[in-house]
Each structure stands twice: as C-alpha cells, then as structure tokens.
Amino acid sequence: MSSNPSMVKKWLDPEAKPFLEFRGVTKSFDGIPAVRDVNLAIYQNELFCLLGGSGSGKTTLLRILAGFESPTEGSVWIDGVDITNVPAYERPVNMMFQSYALFPHMSVFDNVAYGLKRDGLPKSEIAVRVSELLELIRLSAFANRKPDQLSGGQRQRVALARALAKRPKVLLLDEPLGALDKNLREDTQLELIKIQESLGMTFIVVTHDQEEAMTLATRIGVMDEGYLVQTDEPHTIYEYPNSAYVADFIGDINLFECVVTDNEAGELSLYASQLDTAIELDGPVTGAVNQTLWYAVRPEKMRLTRDPSDAVNALKGVVHEIAYLGDFSVYWVDLDCGPRVRVSRPNISRLDDFAEAWGEEVWITWDGSAGVVLSQ
Amino acid sequence: MRVVRRLNTLRRDWLSWIPTVWLGVFFLIPFLVVLKISLSEATIAMPPYLPIFEWIEGSLLEIRLDFGNYLFLIDDPLYGAAYVESVRIALTATIITLLIGYPMAYVIATAREPRRTLLLLLVILPFWTSFLLRVYAWIAILKTNGLLNGLLMSLGVISEPLVILQTDVAVYIGIAYTYLPFMVLPLYASLSKLDRTLLEAAEDLGATPWISFLTVTLPLTLPGVVAGSLLVFVPAIGEFVIPALLGGNDTLMIGKVLWNEFFANRDWPIASAVAIMMLFVIVGPLMWLNRMNAQHEEANS
Prior knowledge:
heterodimer; A: alpha+beta; Rossmann fold; CATH 2.40.50.140; 6-stranded mixed beta sheet; 5-stranded antiparallel beta sheet; 22% helix; globular; B: mainly alpha; MetI-like fold; two-stranded antiparallel ribbon
C-alpha cells in the first residue's frame, strides 16, 4: 500500500537526516531486558510499523518514545534534539492508546480539547479546531456524548482525534485497530493512511498483526525478544527476510536445512539433507563450503503438479490435508524424503484440479528464484 | 420450574427483608422511643418523664404532646450555638482528615504488593486498641508538659510550650486521628480503581502531574471523597468522647450538651429533643450530598 508519490524513500538516501532516532536503546525491568540495544532511524512522513509478538518489546519501545519509560541505556532523538530526559508532557509526540484511555468523565468534545487546553489556546480557537477534528472523524453530532455512550469504533476515532489535536510531530499508535472487527479494521486502515498522508505527520504504529503492518507501513521493524531483528520495506521483509524468525513470523514458510557443497566464483551449490536433493539457486548468496544454512520457500511460490518434467526443483509427495480458504487453498504435502511442506494454490477456477487430491501422489515444483537462503 | 422460581423469589424477598428488619429493630424503634420522650413532659420520677398516652377511665385515650422541649431548644441560644459549633468543628476536622487521608490513600493505592497490603493493614491496625485508650494517649502527647511540647522544645522549634490540649485544635487532631481510616479506605477504593493509563494519556497530552491530578484523578475519585467525608463528618458532629477528653470547657459540641442534659440535668425530654434535632441537622446535608453523589455517578455511567 502506502502509494503516496510524494513519499520519497528517504531511508535509501544516505544523506537524508533521520527525524527520529533510537541510539543503542536498552530497557530492563528489574534486570530483565525488554528492549535490547535498539538502533533505529525513522524519517519524516513515514508510517513506520513495529511488528512483533507479545513480549517482543515493541510496546516498551513505543512507551520509551512517548516518555512513559526511560531507557536503561541509550538515547532517543527527535529532530536533532536529545529528548531522553524530557518529561512526557513536554515531548512533541502524542499517543493513541491501545485501550483508547478516553477520560470517562469528559464529553467527546472535552476529550479532544484536553491537549489544546493544556497549551492554553484561546477558547474560540479550541472550539474551531475540535470541531474540525470531529468533522474529520465524522462524529460532529456526538460532541456532547460521554465515551461510554459510544461504540468501539467511535471511541477509537475519538482517541485518534484526541491524539491528533495538538498536531504532534510524531503520532504513536499502540495496536490502534486491535479491538475492531475485521471489516471495520480494513476500512480504518485505509482511513489511517489517508489521514497520515493528508496531515503529513510521522506515524509509528505498534502491531502484532503482520497483515496490518503490511497494509499500513512504509517500513516495518520486526522485533523479537527485545531485539529489532529486521527493518525494511514490507516487500523486502516478505521476500527477503534476514532470518528464519522473520520469515516465519511474516507469512508462512517452508524451511529446509541445507549445506553448502561448493562455492565456485561466488555461485553456491546447496545440498538439502532433509530433502536429499541438490537445490538449484538463482541469484547471489554468500556462504562458505560446509556451512549449514536454511533454505526457505514460501507456500505460494511452490506449485502442485502431476508432471514435473520441465521443473528446476521438483519433489514427490502425498497430499496429507487440504484447507479450503475461499480465495486460495493450502495443501500439506508429506514428501517422500520426510518433511511435510505447505503449498498454497489460488482457486482460479471453481473446480480446481487438485480440489479433492487427498492421499494422491503429487509433485511439488518451484523456480530457482523462489527460495531464499538464510544463515540464521 | 415455576415452583422453583417462586421459591427463589421468596428467598430473594427474605434476603431483602433482612436489612429492613435490622433497620426497624435497631434504628426505627429506638428512634420512635426517643421521639416519644422528646414530646413528653419532664418530671421528677422514674422514668423522669410523663407518658404521652393515657387511658382515662379505661375508655378515653388522652394523647398529650409537649412541643415545649423543641420551643425551648429554639429559645435558648445555647443549643443553636452548639449545633453550629458542632457542624463547624466537624467540617473543619473533616477537611483536615481529607487533606491527610488523600495523600495516604494515594500512596497506598500506588504502592506495589506486598507493601500495599502492609500499608492498608497499618491503617486499620489502631482499631485493635480501645478507642478510649487511644484518645487518652493524645492527652499525654498534647498536654503542656507532654510529648509534643517536649520534642518541639528540645529541638528548639519553640521556647514556650504550645497550649493545644483543651482547645478546638486538640478536638480537630482527635477527630482526624480517630476517623482517618474511614476517610482512607473509601479513597483507597476509588483510587485503586482509577485506570493508570488515563494519567498517562493526560501527561501525553501535555498535562503536568499537578494538572493531571486536578483534571483526571480528582474528578474521578470524587465519589470516594464524598463517601469518606460523610463517614467522618456525620459521626464527628455527634462526637462526645473526643471533645469531652481533648476539648476545653468552652468547646461547645452537641454531643456534650446532650450528655449534660441527660446525665447532669436528668432532663430526658430535652436531651431527646436535642438528639432528634441533631438527626435532622445530619440527615439534611447527608441526603443532599447523597443526591449530588448519585447525580455525579449517573453522569459518569
């Protein structure tokens, strides 16, 4: 997504100055590290997603940025200023909380106006800005309601408006769409992107939902056990994961252990012991002879066929299970050489050739460029 | 099915009757007895008042209500002054208790376990000693050559001993000390219910800790403030032991007046009238505050 033409990929430009930076940030709670040595540069107008499972440290990193936690080590910079020791109420960032944290004793209007009142803006200007924001979230008619008189989706929008009200340099969103049902979530995702692009703010979104991250982000930072394991564009993260963890966390993947058998002028030959076959590879991969590597192929890049004659990589197996998901089906195939692989197949026609292939003997094929080799 | 349901409603009715019966036996009947005495005429006899109902020649019921006791209360400025003084002293003491109790409750509510339980226990601990004993202990602390003056003088803070005992200040101290748990516990309950992320949200939006306290914490814990204040204020108005032991001769509180009428003057009807009037002095503001609180709760829910 994120198809804003004005959005130049600043992270590719070594000259570009990052807007926001984590420099060697570590945070421990009672000696247990939650965030470990995170170095991250985020550029203006980015919609950056921090993605990770629960306990991966993504929320802690966001809270460090908001000023609710102070890092045990390292520093945080916004726009060239070290804000590590600036209290939360003086930081140019605002946060949309996972629980929304709307003030229950205040009306929608007063909730949205809260930050503006703290800035000491004149009443008339507050009224104008709040009504603009309520217009934006289409809740003008609800200005006098209390939060508990609103639906979940409405509350979520009020929380967003309240966080946007002060026009912060950076907006932090902690699982912003977590509590919404699927349809509403998809609509809201597009709405968020629209708002972000029209206001020209930098958004940092924490989420555990990889699909959400892929939809929203200009770049994704994947976190695991406190480490920032990979930071890249969604496409790159998906197609060129840098570790088995990332490959497995984002989408599904078939992983095979293999050994480098030959390294001739940088062109590797791989032998997958589990598959008992040599792997044909396109493109450059580095590795020393006898090094153990992971060979990873995504399910949608594998094909089912009954005739493997012109395939580069082909393995025989038996269909163990078929999961029909509507737009595509997932096949679990037990390979004759041992491992079970996942193959996904788009349901292009109503009655697919393999729709009832349980127990059938099939071939799995894939191109040389389909797989990635991972060193960890 | 239907029988079972009937039985269930019956049982529920029984349960709802328990507080009603309780209030009837322990509140309404004594109240009516006192009301009756307050409307009768004093006499030197046993009991020291005349009956209000009398059968004349076995067939005629004579009811004699003497409102003179109430008129006397209005006539004699002593009683009016005592009511006003009681409310003033109780109110001052309640505010002092609130100012001490709120920070205490705040610290307890934000403390981590097991510290929190320990602190709560410490708040309730004084209840395990006799109330009378604890008030007596304050005499030893507050008197001219007592512990407090000794400490302050040895520290060089003061050169002359402070006269605290037998003043209103001693009564404030006594009430604040005695009723502090009643203030702290409801405040603790509403403070520990408070969602901490609301404070983070306020801080995030630019509120300094003090502003976020005033705009978020305080309004959301107002029900606790009202409940705690009522629990201190109401019994403090009728307090007798504390003004009798710690207050001076000129500390005029309705509890003391009542005690004097009852035991020194043995004028039961006047004493009863004082008690009934006191009930109205208390019930009035109580019902008003309760209604305010209910409206506040309703507005919040």
